[in-house]
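> example.struct
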C-alpha cells in the first residue's frame, strides 16, 4: 500500500474501532463468530497443556545436563584417585630363574608361575599365547613338586593390578601359581567373572584354587566364592551353573563381605583367612565386625601391628583429597609385605595338605610396632 496522509490513516482507524468494539461483550469476551483468536475452554486447556509440556521438556533437559555434569565431575574425581604401581612393583614383573611372569591382557590377568613346576601346568601353552618360548622340557621339570594349589587375586579399588606384583611373586617363589586379575576400570566387582578366564587358562579343574583379594577386590572374591554355593536365591547361582570346580579357600586382605547379600556362613568347610592391619583407616571396623556372622565359623582373623591399608600393595598415593584417608604405617612397607606373604603362605600350605587352618594366633605372630 502506498503512503497515506496522517488524516486519512486516523480516519480509517476511527471508523474501524466501532467494528472491533462490536465484537466484544460487556465483559470483554470475544463473541461467537468474532475474527479474534478463539478463547474457548477447550482452546485454553490446549494452550495450558502445551505450556506444561514445554515446561517439563525444559526441566528434563536441565536435569539431564545436571546429571551429565555430575557424572563428569565424578569421573574426573575417580581419575584423580587412581593409584599406580611403583617402579619397584613393576620391577617384579621380570621373569627370572625362579618365576615365569606372563602378562595376558587378552585374558585379563598376569600369571606368576613357579619355574620348577612350569611343565606341570596343563594350560601352559595357552598361557604363553600358544608359544613354547622359555618352556622347560617335560623331562626337566619337577612335576612331583607341583602343589596343585593356586591363588587367583583381585586388586583393590582404583589400584593398578601390578601394584601387587611383589607379593604375588613371593607367593609363586614358594611354589604356588598365581593369577592376578586385571579389573575393568580398576573396579574388581565389575569383573568378578574374569576369575573363570584366568582359571581356564591354566587348565580348568586341574588346580585347586584359593580366591583372594585386597579391599574391594576381597568383596569380588567373596562374590565369586558365593556363586558356587547352592541357594534358593536367584542372586546366588548354584554350583551347577559354573563348570569349574568350587574354590578351595578364601583369602581376604583388609577386606570383608560388605555386600549383605553375601552369606558364606552356611559353608562349614570353606577355609577363610582375613588379614587386617591396626593402622588401617580405610576399612570400616564396625562393618567388618558385623560381617563376621556372614563368614564360616572356621574363619581365621589375623592383625598386623603397625600396618595400614595401602601396605597390602605397593602403589603411589592418590592425588587430591580422598575421603577415606589411610592411617600412617609404623612399620616399614617391606615388613608389612613380609608378614602378609608369610600368613598367606601358611594358609595355602595348610590347604595343600588338606588341613583347615584354624586357631592361628592373631597377635603372637605379629611383631610389635616400630619405626
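> example.seq
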Amino acid at each position: 500500500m502506498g503512503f497515506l496522509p496522517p488524516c486519512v490513516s486516523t480516519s480509517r482507524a476511527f471508523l474501524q474501532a466501532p467494528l472491533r468494539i462490536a465484537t466484544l461483550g460487556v465483559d470483554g469476551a470475544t463473541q461467537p463468530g468474532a475474527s479474534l483468536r478463539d478463547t474457548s475452554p477447550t482452546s485454553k486447556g490446549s494452550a495450558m497443556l502445551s505450556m506444561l509440556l514445554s515446561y517439563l521438556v525444559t526441566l528434563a533437559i536441565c536435569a539431564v545436563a545436571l546429571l551429565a555434569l555430575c557424572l563428569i565431575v565424578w569421573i574426573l574425581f575417580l581419575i584423580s584417585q587412581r593409584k599406580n604401581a611403583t617402579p619397584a612393583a613393576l620391577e617384579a614383573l621380570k621373569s627370572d630363574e625362579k618365576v615365569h611372569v606372563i602378562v595376558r591382557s587378552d585374558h585379563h590377568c598376569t600369571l606368576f608361575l613357579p619355574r620348577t613346576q612350569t611343565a606341570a601346568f596343563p594350560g601352559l601353552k595357552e598361557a604363553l599365547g600358544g608359544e613354547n618360548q622359555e618352556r622347560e622340557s617335560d623331562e626337566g621339570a619337577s612335576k612331583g613338586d607341583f602343589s596343585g594349589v593356586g591363588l587367583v587375586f583381585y586388586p583393590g579399588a582404583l589400584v593398578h593390578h601390578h601394584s601387587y606384583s611383589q607379593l604375588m611373586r613371593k607367593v609363586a617363589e614358594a611354589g604356588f601359581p598365581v593369577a592376578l586379575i586385571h579389573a575393568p576400570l580398576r573396579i574388581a566387582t565389575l569383573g568378578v567373572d574374569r576369575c573363570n578366564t584366568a582359571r581356564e587358562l591354566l587348565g580348568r579343574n586341574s588346580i585347586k584354587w584359593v580366591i583372594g583379594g585386597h579391599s574391594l577386590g576381597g568383596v569380588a572374591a567373596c562374590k565369586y566364592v558365593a556363586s558356587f554355593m547352592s541357594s534358593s536365591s536367584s542372586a546366588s547361582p548354584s554350583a551347577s551353573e559354573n563348570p569349574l570346580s568350587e574354590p578351595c579357600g578364601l583369602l581376604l586382605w583388609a577386606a570383608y563381605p560388605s555386600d549383605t547379600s553375601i552369606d558364606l556362613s552356611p559353608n562349614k568347610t570353606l577355609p577363610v583367612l582375613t588379614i587386617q592391619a591396626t593402622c588401617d583407616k580405610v576399612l570400616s571396623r564396625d562393618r567388618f565386625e558385623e560381617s563376621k556372622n556372614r563368614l564360616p565359623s572356621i574363619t581365621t582373623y589375623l592383625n598386623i601391628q603397625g600396618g595400614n591399608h595401602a601396605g597390602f600393595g605397593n602403589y603411589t598415593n592418590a592425588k587430591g583429597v580422598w575421603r577415606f584417608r589411610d592411617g600412617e604405617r609404623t612399620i616399614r612397607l617391606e615388613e608389612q609385605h613380609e608378614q602378609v606373604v608369610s600368613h598367606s603362605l601358611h594358609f595355602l600350605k595348610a590347604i595343600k595338605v588338606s588341613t583347615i587352618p584354624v586357631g592361628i594366633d592373631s597377635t603372637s605372630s605379629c611383631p610389635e610396632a616400630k619405626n
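> remarks
The mean pLDDT is 79.
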